[in-house]
């Protein structure tokens, strides 16, 4: 599984999170310390979460290769992703897409580097 981050999307990420943070692609399913609790929606929603390098993130046990370094994700959420994906910045939104089309048209960025996980 691979994620290509466009230059525009990478610039938006660098504006929002510290360069030395570790990044998670988080399936927002209500599981784990970074998901909204009790979300009932038919939409598939992802967040990009920046955490400190040493933050404990046991739910994020799988690695996602990107053209800007490895990210982590919840292993079971891979079923909702494609093998080859792209993160782009369009119409003032981060858009996650893959071979099957748009996976999330409005990916949120959360900087939690100051919080303990």
Verbal overview:
With 117 residues, the chain is mostly beta strands. The chain has one domain: Hypothetical Protein Aq_1857, Chain: A (Sandwich). The chain is 9% helix and 41% strand. It is built from one helix and eight strands. It has one helix spanning 7-16; strands at 2-5, 22-27, 46-51, 62-66, 71-73, 84-90, 93-98, 101-111. The protein has an eight-stranded mixed barrel. The chain is globular and about 35 Å long. The two termini are 26 Å apart. The model has no long low-confidence stretch (mean pLDDT 89). This is Core domain-containing protein. It holds the Pfam family Fe-S_biosyn. Residues 1-111 form the Core domain.
* CATH structural architecture: Sandwich
Largest sheet: 8 strands, mixed, barrel
What's the rounded overall pLDDT mean? 89
Assembly state of the chains shown: single chain
Rounded to an integer in angstroms, the radius of gyration calculated over CA atoms is: 13 Å
The tally of structural domains comes to: 1
Low-confidence parts: none
Number of strands: 8
CATH homologous superfamily (4th level) name: HesB-like domain
Query: Helical element count?
Result: 1
Helix content: under 10%
Strand arrangement in the largest pleated sheet: 1-4-5-2-3-8-7-6
Large-scale geometry: globular
Q: Give helix and strand order, one letter per element, not per position.
A: EHEEEEEEE
The CATH class is identified as Mainly Beta
> Alpha-carbon distance between the termini?
26 Å
Question: Which range does the strand content fall in?
Answer: 35-45%
CATH topology-level name:
Hypothetical Protein Aq_1857, Chain: A
State the secondary-structure class: mainly beta
């Amino acid at each position: 599984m691979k994620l290509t981050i466009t230059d525009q999307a990478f610039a938006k990420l660098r504006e929002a999170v510290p360069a030395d943070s570790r990044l998670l692609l988080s399936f927002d399913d209500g599981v784990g310390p970074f998901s909204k609790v009790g979300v009932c929606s038919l939409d598939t929603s992802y967040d990009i979460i920046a955490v400190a390098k040493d933050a404990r993130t046991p739910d994020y046990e799988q690695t996602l290769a990107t053209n800007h370094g490895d990210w982590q994700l919840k292993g079971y959420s891979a079923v909702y992703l494609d093998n080859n994906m792209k993160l782009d910045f369009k119409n003032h939104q981060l858009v996650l897409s893959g071979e099957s089309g748009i996976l999330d048209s409005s990916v949120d960025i959360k900087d939690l580097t100051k919080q303990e996980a």
